[in-house]
Amino acid sequence: MSPLAFEDEKINCPYCQTVSGFDFPFYSRSYYHCPSCDLIFNAREKNSASSVSYYRDHYFDDYAEDQTSGQRTDLYRHILHLLEGYQKPGSLLDAGCGCGFFLKEAKESGWKVAGVDTSRKSIAFATTLVGDGTFFDSLDDVPANSHFDVITMINVLDHMTDAFRQLQKAKDLLSPGGVLYLRFPSGSFHSFFVRLALMLPSKQCMNRFLVFHEYAFTPWAITRILDEMGFVDVKVFNSYITGGNFSSAKLLRSLMGTSCRLLEKLSGGRWLWGPSLEVIVFKEAEVCKY
Ligand SMILES: [Zn+2]
User: Fold this and answer.
1) Where are the domains of the chain?
2) CA-CA distance, 136 to 269, in Å (whole number)?
3) Which in 32, 187, 234, 254 has the greatest CB count within 10 A?
4) CA of 41 relative to ligand 1 center, distance in Å
5) Span 46-185+217-282: which CATH code?
6) Cβ of 175: how many Cβ atoms within 10 Å?
7) Residue 218 C-alpha to ligand 1 middle, in angstroms?
């Protein structure tokens, strides 16, 4: 397939296989939208091997500064505070742990931590930073008999070519009653603004705020996917907005955060228009039959 698919081409949704049409271009990529499950996806062929080799060998050099700058510390503390409302500190696996800053915060809060990342340099950094954590190259390398009270995927799922298999793997590794936490750019927010940008003479001013990787998950899409995978009690909500989203516009960030929270509250949680979403979902607890 060419990098930019033809607009009249139809492609099967990689999740539910429904025939899907072209939605919008973003730089050299073409995004399609599934009319059945609401998933937005990059139309290029999913080449897991080339994606893994990029994250393994180059991602650290391209993006580690985002992590080492300290701009995510408040986000990590917010996530821990949120998780500790559901689980007291126990075992925690961060899938896509990068340089390990979230795991460091978790360890200091009393969690026994483990991390997964395909980037060799990130794992080396995290091993030194965290100290006695356990690290793996992929979820496939985590021993199948290991179980965790919490698994986190912070800005990771939308990068994964095999996102649905990784979610299943995370479910297998969760303890019964365990919590899966996800954070990712909101498909609703970013697709709305990219469609708006297409009507503007200069798209670049808006495109630099927008984020698209392999998938863009809307609240409806991620809820359906997690429900169908057998997770229970899916909660999707607007995420805390980090400096990384709008580092040059603190006032805009503050106004956006306030208005998004207000809309979410007024609609009883149905209107989620923040730039990022958070998801809390559970693996069903084992029911005692006797
Ligand atoms: Zn679909």
Assistant:
1) 46-185+217-282
2) 36
3) 187
4) 9
5) 3.40.50.150
6) 18
7) 12
